[in-house]
Write a structure and sequence with these properties.
single chain; six-stranded mixed beta sheet; four-stranded parallel beta sheet; 15% strand; globular
């Protein structure tokens, strides 16, 4: 092949290759909880490339010590830096509590770091009583008590441990999911008007939660609010008509990997699996 032919072939490959985004957002979580948050951001700005960093070797984070959670979430965030994200979303309430300050100290202002907080404020504003479903560790935490004191001090609030639900969501076992939801619903006091999802995994099965609780209970989750905050930090406006990018990398405990098949059990996961896979080799410039 002559030099001219090689140049022509290279130009052809470049033009037929899927366009890559000029700006990326990374999501970090112990597991599948990040799917709903990545999906919400993609709905608002489909041109943003997505880097999804899960930690299957070490999930769940709930039973771990604060120091362990901080170390693990920092490692997951660092693994995404080879893709030059403009922002990193910590799509995990436990990791936000124990690792957000350390991540911001290390990465900002070069990389924006956005955390997640259970939507207690809007739930309380709509009137009580309010229930908060969360992991056992979160329901007994000073963190949750602080949020309730700050935003729902005048509203009757009940913390409910949704035992095993995050793990069931992670496995994609629908029978186990329904059993865990039924248990949490049985522990939720009658008359609750608003339910706050205090674990990012729970939003993936919100339709099943709504069905278990029945009409009259409004569910509050935070993916859209976090997506809008991410855009604000990036100086961007929502634009659902922007050119489509997609999932550019999946990291599993820091290692490049494929999207787990369990994503397909959830609408947000299916949408991300169907998105263009605009992969970019690690370490290359944008």
């Amino acid at each position: 092949m002559t030099g001219t032919e090689r140049e022509t072939q290279r130009e052809t490959e470049e033009h037929t290759e899927m366009p890559r985004s000029t700006r990326r957002v990374a999501f970090v979580d112990s597991g599948l909880g990040l799917l709903g948050y990545a999906d919400a951001l993609r709905a608002l700005r489909p041109d943003l490339g997505l880097v999804l960093s899960l930690d299957p070797d070490n999930m769940p984070y709930g039973p771990r010590t604060p120091a362990e959670v901080e170390r693990l979430i920092i490692a997951s965030a660092r693994a995404t830096l080879q893709f030059e994200p403009a922002a990193i979303v910590v799509a995990c309430n436990t990791a936000t509590v124990h690792g957000l300050d350390a991540l911001r100290a290390e990465l900002e202002p070069g990389v924006h770091v956005i955390g997640t907080v259970p939507a207690i404020r809007p739930a309380a504003a709509s009137g009580g009583p309010v229930a908060v479903w969360a992991t056992a560790a979160t329901t007994s935490s000073d963190y949750l008590r602080g949020l309730v004191d700050a935003f729902a001090a005048d509203v009757q609030t009940h913390a409910v441990a949704a035992l095993g639900l995050a793990e069931a969501v992670e496995s994609g076992d629908l029978q186990a999911i329904d059993e865990c939801i039924a248990y949490a619903a049985s522990q939720t006091p009658a008359g609750v008007r608003s339910l706050v999802l205090g674990c990012t995994h729970y939003g993936l099965v919100v339709d099943r939660i709504v069905a278990a609780l029945g009409e009259g209970v409004t569910v509050h989750d935070s993916p859209v609010a976090v997506a809008r905050q991410t855009l604000r930090r990036l100086g961007l406006e929502p634009d659902a008509t922007a050119p489509e990018s997609g999932v550019e990398a999946v990291l599993l405990s820091g290692r490049p990997g494929a999207a787990p098949a369990s994503w397909g059990a959830y609408p947000a996961g299916r949408r991300l699996l169907a998105a263009p896979a605009a992969g970019r080799p690690a370490g290359t410039s944008r």
